[in-house]
Every structure is written in C-alpha cells, then in structure tokens.
Specification:
This protein is of the alpha+beta class. It has five helices and ten strands. Strands 1, 2, 3, 4, 5, 6, 7, 8, 9 and 10 form a ten-stranded mixed β-sheet that branches.
Length: 256
C-alpha cells in the first residue's frame, strides 16, 4: 500500500480536536471522510500531533495509506476538493517510505500562540487569537519563561487528565516576541520540544500572561514549576490563539 505524507492547515474552531470522537466533529473524522470519497475505506489517518478542541494548525503533518497509487499533486487536489468547505486544507503531499511515520518519525514540534493586546475586540481574527485588553510586560514574561527551558518535571503545567506515562519533558525553546499592529500589538509565544504534555502550552501561556499583567513575578513561575503540583499552575489560556506551526523530521519529506 503506498504511503503519503501530507502537510495540513486548519481552523480548529469548529472541531473537538484532531482525534476522532463519537458524535463530535473532528479534523481526523472529516479528513478520513474526504479520503473515503476517493477510495473506499475505512481509513485511519495518523497525525504528528493531536491538537485539542479549538486549536489550529499551520503545519500539521499526517500520513495515509492508500490501495491505489496516486500522483501526490493529484491526490492533494482531490482531497482539497472533498474537504471544502471544512476549513481544512492540504498544503503539500509527497510519497514516503512504508516505514515513515508522521508521529514517531518526528523529532521536534513547534507551537505558536498569538495574543492580541488592545482594548477593541478582535474582528477579522476573532477565534484565531487570545484577546487581552491590558498591556503585557513581554520582558518579564520572557524572564519567567526562561525558568521553563530545559528538562523538567512539568506536573504543574500538565492537564489532570493527561495520559502521558511521565511528566518529564525537555522544552528546547520558549521565545516571546512583540509584533506591532496598526492598533495595539500581538504577542507571539513560540514553544519547541520533541513532544508536549496535554495542555502544557496553554498552561504555560496562561501562567505567563499573569506575569505580563503584573499579577505574578518571574520567580513565581519558577516556584510553580518546582512545586510539581497542578494546583500551583496559573489559569489555562483559551485554545483560540494556539497553532501547531510546524513539525520537524531528521529528513524532511517535503524538501528532500
């Protein structure tokens, strides 16, 4: 069976998340239905990251197995036809080896979180950013974030229903940048790691927002981390501003 890797972009607002769930719309379920319109199923689509409800993707990577041999460009065009108007798009599609795996072959995942800072409500970006009305101290947020870089027990920043075997993760990067806008600004939080715990990024961003607002100090974040207690976490940010931006592989199938 030929195996293909696809790079996806999607608006997660209408979905319960990536993973298929009974009686709820999911990105995986919609994509598998589109694939079944091309070739009778059932089909199982494997993703690099299982994004949560309301979370978006700019560069989700999946792999699919088909009975027929497709030309990759034609396959992507056909899938995009059947995905309309689901707000899911195939950006790229390539043939890969039978042992290539979207999840297990990945070596790094990059998440982006967008915070819109201004008094006026979001209009064009409604549902695509976390709208915060107060100014945030980006420098203090970065000092706090620096405590989280490296190999740590992230129990504090892990959902209580997380199914990961261990709370130990290595956060390779967390960078915060200010993006000026005509009215207000956006604050972008970039987080990179091989893998993340359930709601880890949203827990971190929600806590860092408290630092930016002056309610927490950077040292409070260090203490929260070392507490290894979910109760020590700040508020969890909404999913609106979170994006799976890209996934890295030792040999990128989309450029090789």
């Amino acid at each position: 069976m030929p195996r293909f890797a696809c790079k996806l972009e999607y608006h997660g607002g209408a979905y319960c998340g990536w993973q298929r769930q009974r009686d709820l719309p999911s990105v995986q379920g919609v994509f598998e239905s589109a694939l079944s319109a091309l070739e009778s199923g059932p089909h199982v689509v494997v993703a690099a990251g299982r994004t949560d409800a309301g979370v978006h993707a700019l560069g989700q990577v999946i792999h699919i197995d088909t009975e027929r041999t497709f030309e990759p460009f034609r396959l992507s065009e056909a899938l995009n036809h059947y995905l309309k108007p689901a707000q899911i798009a195939v950006l790229d599609c390539v043939r890969v080896s039978d042992d290539w795996h979207a999840r297990f072959s990945a070596i790094k995942r990059h998440y982006l979180f967008r915070i819109l800072v201004r008094r006026a409500p979001a209009t064009h970006d409604d549902g695509l950013v976390w709208h915060v009305k107060r100014d945030l101290n980006v420098e203090a947020m970065q000092r706090a974030a620096n405590h989280l870089i490296g190999h740590h027990d992230f129990t504090t920043f892990r959902s209580s229903i997380c199914q990961a075997a261990s709370p130990l993760k290595t956060l390779d990067e967390i960078t915060i940048e200010r993006i000026p806008k005509p009215i207000g600004e956006e604050i972008h939080v970039h987080a990179r790691a091989r893998s993340f715990l359930h709601k880890q990024v949203r827990s971190i961003v929600g806590t860092l927002e408290r630092v930016g607002a002056g309610a927490w100090s950077p040292e409070d974040v260090r203490r929260a981390l070392t507490a290894r207690n979910r109760a020590a976490c700040g508020p969890v940010s909404p999913p609106d501003g979170l994006y799976l931006q890209d996934v890295s592989y030792s040999e990128d199938p989309f450029t090789s």
